[in-house]
Design goal:
mainly alpha, two-stranded antiparallel ribbon, three-stranded antiparallel β-sheet, elongated, 73% helix, 272 residues, 7 helices, single chain
């Protein structure tokens, strides 16, 4: 394409589907971790490690990896590279804001107000992640932004984050988590592709970029594979933690039964 031409907005369907799958699976692991947060808080145990797992699952993988795959899904007539430090900053924004929102909501009894505040924190952080990720792009083009669509994308992000926090502290069964994860995956994708439509890409003259860049046609699949592997490890860690808790609970029950049996065997003192 020649300088001044507008790049048509189109996406590769296969990568769009991959972006949804990673968003939904990240949400599912995060919802599972949120169930552990609720159980640990009710039992008086530490729950901060579960907040970390949920933040990495939802913010770091379900949202950030989805964003990266979604960017590669956009059809462009040139190769896209990404500046490393801004890309890392976008990752940290997604994880830290998701973790902060979860911590804020979980530290006290759940309320709609706390959920809304947490949703705003998480939503703004995720929106910032997206646009910082866009700023990390190194391409022979510039963006002309639509303020209206930017506002819509931020509103979608805040609403989706608030809904995600509500679901995190209310869904109970596995099938509820699966359905909620699918809804959250659709919401995350809706935010991303609305934000993608907010920027019109206009070609410029080819130019060389300095600094360390990451990019390449195979990167979406590498990111997808590494993200799935990480989520499986996090899910396995949650499973191990659940087993340990059940074992401790069984030991407590056995101890109570044993002490009750000892009292029964000792008998009651004779009546006078």
């Amino acid at each position: 394409m020649t300088p001044g031409e507008i790049v048509p907005l189109s996406f590769a369907l296969g990568l769009v589907i991959l972006s949804f799958l990673i968003a939904a699976y990240g949400a599912y692991v995060a919802l599972t971790a949120a169930a552990h947060i609720r159980a640990a808080a009710a039992d008086g145990r530490s729950w901060l490690s579960y907040v970390g797992i949920a933040a990495v699952s939802m913010g770091g993988i379900g949202i950030w990896s989805m964003h990266f795959i979604g960017m590669q899904a956009q059809s462009m007539p040139f190769d896209a590279g990404y500046q490393v430090w801004l890309t890392l900053l976008s990752f940290l924004l997604a994880v830290l804001c998701s973790g902060l929102a979860l911590w804020y909501v979980a530290r006290e009894r759940f309320s709609v107000l706390r959920c809304m505040v947490g949703g705003v924190v998480a939503g703004l952080g995720i929106a910032a992640m997206h646009y910082v990720g866009i700023a990390a792009m190194r391409i022979p083009a510039l963006f002309l932004w639509s303020p209206g669509l930017i506002v819509v994308s931020v509103l979608i992000t805040v609403v989706a984050a608030t809904a995600a926090l509500w679901l995190a502290f209310h869904v109970q069964t596995t099938w509820q988590r699966v359905l909620a994860a699918a809804v959250m995956g659709l919401a995350v994708c809706g935010m991303h592709y609305t934000a993608a439509a907010a920027g019109t890409m206009v070609c410029t003259a080819p130019r060389a970029f300095t600094g360390f860049l990451i990019g390449g046609a195979s990167l979406p699949y590498i990111v997808f594979g590494l993200s799935i592997a990480t989520l499986l490890l996090l899910r396995w860690q949650l499973h191990r933690s659940s087993l340990r808790f059940r074992q401790k609970l069984a030991q407590r029950v056995d101890a109570l039964i044993g002490s009750g049996a000892s009292v029964a065997e000792g008998g009651m003192p004779p009546a006078r």
